[in-house]
Write a structure and sequence with these properties.
The structure is a single chain. It contains one helix and five strands; from the N terminus they run βαββββ. Helix content is 5%, strand content 31%. It has a five-stranded antiparallel sheet with strand order 4-3-2-1-5, with no helix packed on it. With 83 residues, the chain is mostly beta strands.
Length: 83
């Protein structure tokens, strides 16, 4: 079977995604990120995990992040670019 994946799309100029809430302005679709700072019981399980940025949702101010088989929506403040 095939696992669902996100298709990272960057606009033709490779522009950064604008967000006043972002503490990491260089985040773009396709970047590998690490989750941090989540405080809820379910969120704590995601801290330290890495995922792939899929799409920035302007309506919610969150990134869709593919972590394994899951697609989660996270605030930019809870993401750092993985090295």
């Amino acid at each position: 079977w095939i696992l669902p994946v996100c298709i990272a799309m960057v606009d033709s100029g490779g522009a950064e995604v604008p967000s006043e809430a972002s503490n990491v302005p260089e985040l773009r679709p396709g970047h590998l990120v690490e989750v941090n700072g989540l405080a809820s019981e379910s969120g704590k399980l995601l801290n330290g995990q890495r995922g792939l940025l899929c799409e920035f949702l302007e309506a919610t101010g969150r990134w869709q992040v593919r972590i394994g088989e899951k697609l989660v929506s996270l605030k930019p403040a809870n993401l750092s670019k993985a090295e």
